[in-house]
Amino acid sequence: QVQLVESGGGSVQAGGSLRLSCVVSGGSVRGYSMGWFRQAPGKEREAVARISSTFGNTYYTDSVKGRFTISADNAKNSVYLQMNSLKPEDTAVYYCAAKYLTSVQYDYWGQGTQVTVSS
User: Which pLDDT tens digit goes with each residue over 83-102?
Assistant: First the structure.
């Protein structure tokens, strides 16, 4: 059973930084495309960043480019999201997700971690 556990959320002022972590158990990050998603109150869930440690490619949604960095540590079976220059509009519940490289939809999801950015 693959499980994803996020941590690192919290409350910060605008301009601050947070680092989210996602530990994967029951599987290897090498075998998945890993993503970070977020959902703000009243809004649809959106993809924030994605990484394939197998192929080394990354993706960022436009609103976080230059501020957020996704990375993976195969030895720790973990994925991270470094968030700098945070803005109030980044406030959301952030979710870690994993999908097999051949899957269209994400197969596994974490429970989410709250990020709150105050102005």
Answer: 999 999 999 999 999 999 88
Distance CA 5, CA 76 (A): 13
pLDDT grade, residue 64 (50/70/90)? Answer: very high
CA of 109: how far to CAs of 24, 50, 88, in Å? 10, 14, 25
Report long-range pairs for 53-61 (Cβ below 8 Å, ≥24 apart): 53/29, 54/30, 54/101
Give yes or no for a contact between 105 and 1, defined as CB atoms under 8 angstroms apart. no
Distance of CA 95 to the CA centre of its chain: 6
Region of 29 please: left (phi>0), alpha (psi -120 to 50) or beta.
Answer: alpha
Give the integer Cα–Cα distance in Å for 76 and 84.
23
Residue that has been written with the tokens 């994605």 in this structure: 50
Nearest-5° Cα angle at 43, 19 to 111: 45
From the list 49, 109, 112, the residue with the least C-alpha distance to 83 is 49
